[in-house]
Amino acid sequence: MSAKKLQYERPVIQKLNVGLMNKFGTRTEYTPLTHIDGNSVKDLLGKFGSPLFVISERTLRRTFREANRSFKTRYPKVQFAWSYKTNYMNAVCNAFHQEGSWAEVVSGFEYQKALNNGVPGNKIIFNGPDKTEAELKVAIANNSMIHIDHLDELYLIKEIAVESNKKPRVAIRVNMDTGVYPMWDRFGFNYENGQAWDAINKIMLNDKMELVGLHSHIGTFMLTPSAYGMAASKLSHLALEIKKKYKKNIQYIDMGGGFASKNTLKGSYLQGIDASPTFDQFAESICTAILNAGFTETDLPLLILETGRALIDESGYLLGTVVSNKRLSDGRRATILDFGVNILFTSFWYDHKISPAQEFSQYTEDAVLYGPLCMNIDVIRENITLPPLKRDDHVVVHSVGAYNMTQWMQFIALRPAIVMIDMEGNSHIIRKRETLDSIEKDEIVPKYLKDFKL
Amino acid sequence: MKLKKNLALSDSGFVFDPSTGDSFSTNPIGLEIIRMLKEGKNANDIKNHVTKTYMTDDASFEKDYYDFVNMLTKHNLVEGGEKEKN
Amino acid sequence: MVKKKKINIAVTGLNAIDSPGPGVPVIRALRDSKLFDVRIIGLSYESLEPGIYMHDIVDKTYQIPLPSAGKATLMERLKYINSIEKLDVIIPNFDAELFNFIKLADTLKKELKINVFLPTLEQFEERHKSNLPEFGKKHKIKIPHSKLIFNIKEIPSLRNEFTYPVVVKGKFYDASIAYSPEQVATYFNKISAKWGLPVIIQEFLHGQEVNVTAIGDGKGNTIGAVPMRKQYITDKGKAWSGISIDDKNLMNMTRKLIKSTKWRGGMELEIIKTSEGDYYLIEINPRFPAWVYLAVGCGQNHPEALVRLALGQKVEPFKKYDIGKLFVRYSWDMIVELDEFEKISTLGEL
């Protein structure tokens, strides 16, 4: 046959609901994303299988440099520490270490990871409420910065210090009211009720430990830069009080993390990309507060930042494939994808931006996006406007770099591969797709349960 | 299956049901199918036409066709709401 | 006779319904202009906004994406509209869309040569209901005593700061009067479920509500201000009729507020005048109110002044306004052909 056939699109019909908002101009949401850093989505999925996590090294480094510049142009001494829990793929951690980041860890497991990656012990910050005695001993031997969360830990460190004859470098974590809700008062020592000052005195009046820093971490996905300014003022105030009473300069103030990324929180009216503050705004608030606190120029403490989410979220993509379309009893379109909440944990709190990976006409349908799990909670987007997708079409989820590759679950399905696209556009597999063996290799079946007859 | 006779269609894909006052929007292929249904074409005629004109196959289109027809029924655009007999 | 300057102005808020948007009155004001010969481009969100079908008011309408679609999407659509209409000025009239337009202001000017005259992001943020107590402190304006509460456990201790009744308000909308802690709890649950936290507890003031429509030049000058007292209120709390009043204190308060904030653009102040003669600021709306045409009727064309400011012209402040002029709103059933509804619904243009 000679006549060329036309591109097919599934027939759709939608009621024009009076009072319902229009679709005009909404094309950015479903503008197809066919390539990531020069690699076609189709080829990537063909080569590495579907679903697939992709990390853009270009975006990662660009974002880091932007954040670094925002702070360094406003404050003389700035140090980032990569928050391992946000994404501890070694390739990702090392990219940040190459950019000059120290490591910030919250468990013995993460601590070992940082050491194995080659981070010197004295450039590891050890946070978190649960550090075992054995872990603390290693951290003290390595001269790491230990951020004390509670009094039991403080006394344990003191004991180890006496035994080991080493002087641990410690900081305390301070929680405080910065006008944001909820107030994170479960970690560290409270500022307003004097707990923090009390803990500082306990350390300062005992020469077994060296108080090197003050740390706070006021919340997560913070949209108000001014709250950081308030926290920075309160920490500065403590540092100046220490100077006054003990004639000692605190080496650093660690503002923790929590900067919002460009994702859109569920229930938020504005798009995250419009509503989230820029690094400049956070930097302005924090740096101004410390600079105006009353330090002399030589006494200005090092400013440490443990930003995770805002540095890595946008670098990550999740690519996947349409499994099927169906119609729900109320007439809504449901599209089933080959990835679910098991690997896209953040879909519990974000309305992730999802784009088709191939061209479409301007017609759209409202749909629910489901994952492949046989579980009712497996919903990726409760409501999204997309062109009519068909089986085997591809989609791309944006901004998934933070927390998904650490909080994902091996549940029902195996976890997919992760690929990093380097600065030149070459793809490197940085974590292999799991196999049955990766899950079963640590399992032991007692001998008497090996055989059965059916 | 019979569509309501008085449905008003326009080239922009606007569909108006005068008996209920409801209006709808459909894409070009949807409009084509509605027009053929109005002309009294049956499922086979439509399938042949679409698979000849567009890059799709019998099985894929059949699935989409029945979904579309279900939506027409759901939207109350079908005469008496009765199912088509093949 | 001076020849009027031809100008293309896009206006949102065409929902001239029972809780009306300010678009149609703003356009009427512009059409009354002695300086401009306006072509009006309506920007609508829904297919049934009455302004779309008022062809002697709006020359052409385009649907634009919902504010929740984000500013990039809005920019795309405005680029398209501008490619056809060559817009000189855009006047956004909805609170919810202002955030995006404020963020786009520079880009609109640079890339499309479109002028807006809007509050700064800082002005827009600091006048939010939940920031009002801070705002009052900063600009030395009386605000009813208020407290933000996040938790139902905070209710019993309210009696240390308030005497009942109190007003329980949502972050964005809703307000109820509570006469007891139990009622506060009920409203707290209702309002927080709908609008999120915090919930605002506000001192209940006995007095008369008065409103001002005003415009500031961004340098601290009040270009125009007309105060009004509502005479008849609909069940949605909207003024159906109002009268311009002579109140020097109210005018002073308005000028002081605009001077202190360096307010840029149109605004509406909602104020309570207590029986003791004190003035308390209840709310600032960062745009013209739907009754802005009363200002025109009183001799102050605020929308025209806004267009001139947007174009970078020097505007002298209005010196007087007519006192005792009324507005009485009315509704009107238009007859609309189906093909018009079809066009705006399917093509997004009419």
Adjacency order of strands in the biggest sheet of chain B? 1-2-3
Summed over residues and divided by their number, the pLDDT of chain B gives a mean of 86
Given the helix and strand composition of chain C, which structural class is it?
alpha+beta
Report the principal-axis shape of chain C. globular
Q: Work out the largest interface and the residue count of each chain.
A: A-C, 21 and 31 residues
Q: Helical segment tally of chain C?
A: 10
How many individual domains of chain C?
3
What's the CATH architecture name of the largest domain in chain C? Answer: 2-Layer Sandwich
Distance between the termini of chain C: 34 Å
Structural class of chain B: alpha+beta
Q: Mind telling me the C-alpha Rg of chain B? A: 12 Å
Q: Order of helices and strands of chain C, N to C?
A: EHEEHEHHHEEEHEEEEHEEHHEH
**What is the C-alpha radius of gyration of chain C, as a whole number of Å?**
21 Å
**Which bin fits the share of residues in helices of chain B?**
40-55%
Main-sheet strand order of chain C equals 13-12-9-10-11-14
Structure summarized in a few sentences:
The complex is a heterotrimer of chains A (454), B (86) and C (350). Chain A is of the alpha/beta class and 454 residues long. Helices cover 29% and strands 22% of the residues of chain A.
